[in-house]
Amino acid sequence: MAGNILLLTLLAISVPLKMTVAYEPSPLQDFCVADTTSPANTSNRFGSSPTPVTVAQVPGLNTLGVSMARIDYAPGGIVPPHLHPRATEILTVAEGTLDVGFVTSNPENRLISKVLQKGDVFVFPVGLVHYMRNVGPIPAVSISGLSSQNPGLITVPGAVFGSNPEMPADFLAKSFQVDQKVVDYLQNIF
Question: Could you read off the pLDDT of 109-159 as tens digits, one per residue?
Fold first, then answer.
């Protein structure tokens, strides 16, 4: 037994101890203090005012994989159909009553919608077209968390009718099965 202990001791002494340490440094790059002097203005054509909190506004979110948005809605205000190509969104109603929904992908194109009250939560899967609208008699507020520091935002009407350069009006008329005058009108708005 003493011989075995001596042999193990000699092996331990003769084998150099090698250690490798790896770690992720803190991804925090900056910090930001909220600007509380910026009031929400819902007196626009949609009756809503989104306030995003993404890496563009808060550089400290870089690499963290999260962002947020506050949306203020006038009575009847909407957030038009849009999508986030890089993030799932979870929305919580802070005040008011919202009708929200998303459309599943082809071929089904099924609308999943719900009327939400204060405290209710709804999830919009990544990349799916979704909307929000205030269906209550008072202003509403929602808070959204998104699963990317840069979720992206593509508004459907703006992308289709407001592209630069414009998509060909005859193509859009055929795609939407409407008269080209309707497309011309919509392109002038957006």
Answer: 999 999 999 999 999 999 999 999 999 999 999 999 999 999 999 999 999
Tell me the average pLDDT of the chain: 87
24 is in an annotated binding site: no
- Contacts with 77 (C-beta within 8 Å, 6 or more apart), sequence order: 42, 46, 47, 48, 133, 134, 139, 140
Cβ neighbourhood burial of 56 (10 Å; 0-12, 13-18, 19+)? exposed
Instruction: Using alpha carbons, list the distances in angstroms from residue 97 to 65, 136, 153.
Output: 29, 5, 23
Check whether 108 is labelled as a binding-site residue: no
Contact between 135 and 75 under an 8 Å Cβ cutoff? The reply is no
Read off the pTM: 0.78
For the chain, which residues make up each domain, given as ranges? 48-151, 153-190
Angle between helices 169-176 and 180-189 (to 10 degrees): 110
Q: Which fold has domain 48-151?
A: Jelly Rolls (2.60.120)
Tell me the three state secondary structure of residue 148: coil
82 is in an annotated binding site: yes
How does pLDDT run across 78-95, given as a tens digit for each residue?
Answer: 999 999 999 999 999 999
Q: Residue 89 annotated as binding? A: yes
